[in-house]
Structure formats: C-alpha cells, structure tokens
Design brief:
Layout lengths: L2 H25 L3 H5 L3 E6 L7 E5 H11 L11 E2 L6 E8 L6 E3 L18 H6 L1
The structure holds zinc ion (2 copies).
Length: about 130
C-alpha cells in the first residue's frame, strides 16, 4: 500500500472521530439544564382572568424574549397572558405539598417560596 493512501485514511478517521465528539458535546444536555425544572407554572394576576398556565422552559424563554426583557431576573417581570392579552402573567411557584399556585414574595425575611396555604417551603428544607 502506498504511503499517501494510508495517510489519507488516517486523516479521514481523525475527522470522523472529531465530528463524533463534537456532535456528542453539541447534543449533550448542559448540566444546569438538568437541574432546572422542565416546566414552569405561570399565573395571570389579572383579577378578571386568573388563568394558570404551564409552559415548558423553552416556551417561557420565548415569552421573555417577546417581552423584550434582557435582565437577570425574568421571573420578576410581567408577561403577556395568552388568554386575556394583558401584561399580567408572572412566574409562580407550585407547592409540591398541596399543589397551590402562588407568587413568590421577595423582600421579607421569610423564604420567598413559602406556601400561603400549608407553610411548606422548598428553600427552607434545602437550607435546613
Ligand atoms: Zn390573563
Ligand atoms: Zn402548600
């Protein structure tokens, strides 16, 4: 076998391996995505509407993009409600104990995710 032919074969094999590795990393889920929930609960704060909406993380990212918000705390902005069309939708917490949907309350000394119905707080459990 002539040398040139062999060299081409080796280069070809190297390229194949590189592409395989690149594809592997491209489609591998990022570690921070696996620890965040797949779905988010949103609630419309418009009294006349009050819909609760469950969206996937991607849908939520799209909603935030549509609103034009680029800051670091998208969970504190109001998004447009798909039901009533008002800018009144906020991310809310779903209590894993009793299933109650409620808004996180920042600003007080208590954990923001304490359920108003049964007093359960995921954060409290985590930091105990
Ligand atoms: Zn609404
Ligand atoms: Zn609860």
């Amino acid at each position: 076998m002539d040398n040139r032919h062999l060299q081409l074969k080796i280069i070809g094999a190297c390229v194949c391996i590189t592409v395989a590795i690149a594809l592997f990393f491209l489609f591998k889920p990022k570690p921070d995505e696996s620890t965040t929930p797949e779905h988010l609960s949103l609630i419309c704060t418009n009294d006349k509407c009050g819909s609760d909406i469950t969206v996937s993380r991607n849908e939520y990212i799209n909603l935030v993009k549509q609103s034009g918000y680029t800051g670091a705390f998208p969970n504190q902005i109001l998004l447009t409600c798909s039901k009533c069309g008002q800018k009144s939708v906020r991310v809310c917490e779903k209590c894993i104990k009793c299933g109650k949907l409620f808004l996180l309350s920042y600003g007080n000394k208590d954990y923001p995710d304490r359920c108003p119905q049964c007093d359960y707080s995921k954060m409290e459990q985590r930091f105990k």
